[in-house]
Structure formats: structure tokens, C-alpha cells
Amino acid sequence: MSQGLRVDLNADVGESFGARQIGDDEPIFKYVTSANVACGFHAGDTNIIAATIRAAAARKVAVGAHPSYPDSAGFGRQTIDMPADELRHVIIYQIGAVDALARSLGVTLVHVKPHGALYNDAAKNPALAAAVADAVATYDKNLILVGLAGSHMIAAGRAAGVRVAAEAFSDRVYETDGTLRSRALPDAMIEDPKRAAAQAVDIVVNRRVTASDGKQVRVQAQTLCVHGDAPNAVDVASAVRKALSSAGVEIAEMQRLL
After folding, report:
1. How many domains is the chain built from?
2. Cα 39 from Cα 63, distance rounded (Å)
3. Among 120, 161, 165, 233, which is least packed, fewest CB within 10 Å?
4. Is 59 within a domain?
5. Per-residue model confidence as pLDDT tens digits over 70-108
6. pLDDT at position 20, please?
7. Is residue 208 included in any domain, yes or no?
């Protein structure tokens, strides 16, 4: 049943804050194929960005930018009402920062994945999705825009003329409408590696996910996310990759799948 199936595994990284230090993400690069590097507006700084890119490149992990609302206090998880032009500038600024550091290290930027509230808001709001997609297209139409599978982000990216990668989550709980369960709720994250691995296989092999109410939701994705800031992120990433490989799924870089 899984013959010929392929998927990219991505992780949100470079999000050092509090007790987390530079280098905390390095172990996860053994298991993922794409890295979404925080751009400094919700977490990280120039040194963290450079160190994260260097560590990802050493493992031949593709590097992308992970821009957010300007919300360092709220870790990018608070919605900020911004005019479309201002939001585009904020996103282009962040992509440019990561791209410049990547180029200085001989690394080519591959993709852009919005972070946190910006990601979730753009998934639901077509005007916001259009602003995000336009920012990516304006900066570089060769970049891949990563967005929630089945959401406005995917449609907006296509309309803007950029390649899109539909994303699903191995370690997040879904709602019946295909959106992610709010992090304000205690059961929004899947912390058990076995459960995350089972959800990953269900998504890739059966193209479905079981929502919070027990209903099955159809989902088709080219890339799966493992959150690098989770306490057991490496265990989850390891379990997900092992389960997918055991199911006959090839793990491949995002740009090879589009």
C-alpha cells in the first residue's frame, strides 16, 4: 500500500530561548531532511541562525526561513494586526537575513515556512495568505512556500507563482476542519513518540488523520513537521522516521518531491 510513497521531514529549529542554547537542535538533524530556521523575530539571533544553518548543512539538511510576526515576547504565538504592506516587509526582511547568513556559509536557501500565529492565521485568512505568498514570490520565486495542507496558504502560493509544499504534523492534534488544535488547550501537542509515529504513518500511507473528536480527516502532504522545541523532539523525530521507513516510505528532501 505504501509503494512509491515519499515524504520530507522538517523541523522548526534555531529557536533558542531561556534554558535552550545554541547547538540544542543538532541531534534532530540526524532524522529530518529540512530545517526551518527561526529568523530572530520570535526566537534566535544572528549567531544562533548561523550556527543552526552550519549544523544543518553538515548533515545535508535543506535550510529554509521560519519568519513570524514581530513577537519575541510571545514566541510568535500572538496574532498581530498589521497592514499587508508592513507584513510583507517584515517577512521579506526575515527571509533576507537568513538567506544572507546562509549564502555566507555556502548554503542555498530552499524554502519558507511561516511560524506560529502567522502560520495559523494565514491558513485561515485568504488575504493574509496572499500577503505571505506575495512576500515570498517578491523575494525569490525559486523558494518553496510551506503551508498547512488544504489551507489558503497552498492556494495563495500557487496563485503567486511559487512552488508549494503541503504540510501535515506528526506531533500536533487536529480539529475536524483540518486545522491544528489551539496550543491554549493542554492536549494540543502529541508528546508520546509512538503516537506521533503512528499519526505520521497514517498521514503518509492512508492520507488521513484522526481529529480530536475521533473523526478521520483527509489530508495529503509532501512534508511532515516535528517541532524542534519540544522537550523530547529527538525521540519523536527518531520514532517518526523509523516508523515511516518501516512502512516503506522514502524520506526525501522537499525539493525532490515537487
Report:
1. 1
2. 12
3. 161
4. yes
5. 999 999 999 999 999 999 999 999 999 999 999 999 999
6. 47
7. yes
One-letter amino acid at 146 equals: V
> 129: buried, middle or exposed (CB in 10 Å: 19+, 13-18, 0-12)?
buried
**Residue 1 falls within a domain, yes or no?**
no
Instruction: Indicate whether 16 pLDDT > 90.
Output: no
Tens digits of per-residue pLDDT, 20-39?
454 478 899 999 999 999 99
CATH number, residue 239: 3.20.20.370
> What pLDDT does residue 17 have?
53
